[in-house]
Amino acid sequence: MATKDEIALRIRQFGEQNYGSMVAFARALGILPSNLNKYLRGSLVPGPIMEKRLRELGCDPTWLLTGIHREQAIQEQAARFGLTSIKYPLVSHIWAGKGGTEKVYE
């Protein structure tokens, strides 16, 4: 796993590339710019809620924590087993629990 400073740098890179300003990035995350600044300084590391918000904005959590994009990590693992390419297509969403649109019978 990366250091706090490396994660902070990647959060900044993601914000600059996708939102142009840290104020706009903070707004998209639903937090105050002063709170975002804590992540950008490395004072805070994203926990589950912030990771979820970043993921919803399109940030690759594998890249955020390791510096390697998920697709690249999959290809590297495939190469270790002698495979040239692996793709995992999304087939469908699967509802779990009682939160789906289907009827629940008890």
Task: Please provide a written account of the structure.
The chain has one domain (4-80): lambda repressor-like DNA-binding domains (434 Repressor (Amino-terminal Domain), Orthogonal Bundle). The protein is mainly α and 106 residues long. It is built from 6 helices and no strands. Helix 1 crosses helix 2 (22-29) and helix 2 crosses helix 3 (33-40). Helices cover 55% and strands 0% of the residues. The chain is elongated, with a radius of gyration of 18 Å. The model has no long low-confidence stretch (mean pLDDT 82). The termini are far apart. It has helices at 4-19, 22-29, 33-40, 48-56, 61-66, 70-80.
Any idea what the CATH superfamily is called? Answer: lambda repressor-like DNA-binding domains
Characterize the overall form: elongated
| Helix/strand order, N-terminal first | HHHHHH
Residues in β-strands, percent: under 5%
CATH architectural category: Orthogonal Bundle
Question: What is the rounded Rg?
Answer: 18 Å
**Relative helix content:** 40-55%
Which spans have pLDDT < 50 for at least 5 consecutive residues?
A: none
Q: Any idea how many domains?
A: 1
* CATH fold name: 434 Repressor (Amino-terminal Domain)
Largest sheet: none
Average predicted local confidence, pLDDT: 82
Return the structural class: mainly alpha
Number of beta strands: 0
Tally of alpha and pi helices: 6
